[in-house]
Amino acid sequence: SIIRKFKEYGTTVNLPRSGAPRKIGLRARRHLLRKIKNKPMMTRKEIQIDLEASGTKVSERTISRELHDNGIKSFTPRKTPMLSKKHVASRLNFAKEHLEKGNDYWKSVLWSDETKIELFGRNAARHVWRTEGTAYDRKNTIPTVKHGGGSIMVWGCFTSHGTGALHLIDGKMDGAMYRQILEKSLIFSNVSAKQLFRRRKWTFQQDNDPKHTANLTREWFNKKKI
């Protein structure tokens, strides 16, 4: 290599390298990337402390630059429903079963659900270190529960033709209250399902919450021919 260097550059002296040398060695870099892969929501300060404990002392700015050089940037994590493996499998099966459905089918669906509206604003901001295209990887998201305190609950529905009635839920909703909401919203509301679909055939979509699938609720749907 010395002879090759002399032939190419006319000297055996080490030439100056372009750019500043890296402050993080190969071993520390591997440790950093492995740590971020396993715990993507670590803060720069936490990463700095972890590296220092393993013998590498660098600034938070150097950590950011090293991560950026490896295609890893800081993003606000996406919030996703807290799903069990059973829920994930069920949703995947639903998607596969309906994969070939055309636009006309989806235009005939009335989607419905309850949702929680927080009364006290957003939670403290958090960030996640990740690469492009991995926003919905489980480690890069913040799981959220469907219902909780400090909020109001509403039930609503929508179609490709427009939105249905929005119903405020007073107290804890059980099967009886759910059927009352369906009666008011789908049958007697100013924006009832009949008006939304204009007498066209339609399909009511709900999840498998116990009050949605109770025997009395099923009987109600059969009686109303929904």
State the secondary-structure class: alpha/beta
Q: What summary fits the major beta sheet?
A: 5 strands, mixed
Question: What is the fold-level CATH name, i.e. the topology of the largest domain?
Answer: Nucleotidyltransferase, domain 5
Q: Which residues form runs of ≥5 with pLDDT under 50?
A: none
CATH superfamily heading of the largest domain: Ribonuclease H-like superfamily/Ribonuclease H
Average pLDDT over all residues: 83
Tally of domains: 2
Strand content: 15-25%
| Morphology | elongated
Number of strands: 9
What is the H/E string? HHHHEEHHEEEEEEHHEHH
Number of helices: 10
What is the level 1 CATH name of the largest domain? Answer: Alpha Beta
- Radius of gyration over alpha carbons? 28 Å
End-to-end Cα distance, whole Å, is 81 Å
Shape-level CATH architecture of the largest domain: 2-Layer Sandwich
Helix content: 40-55%
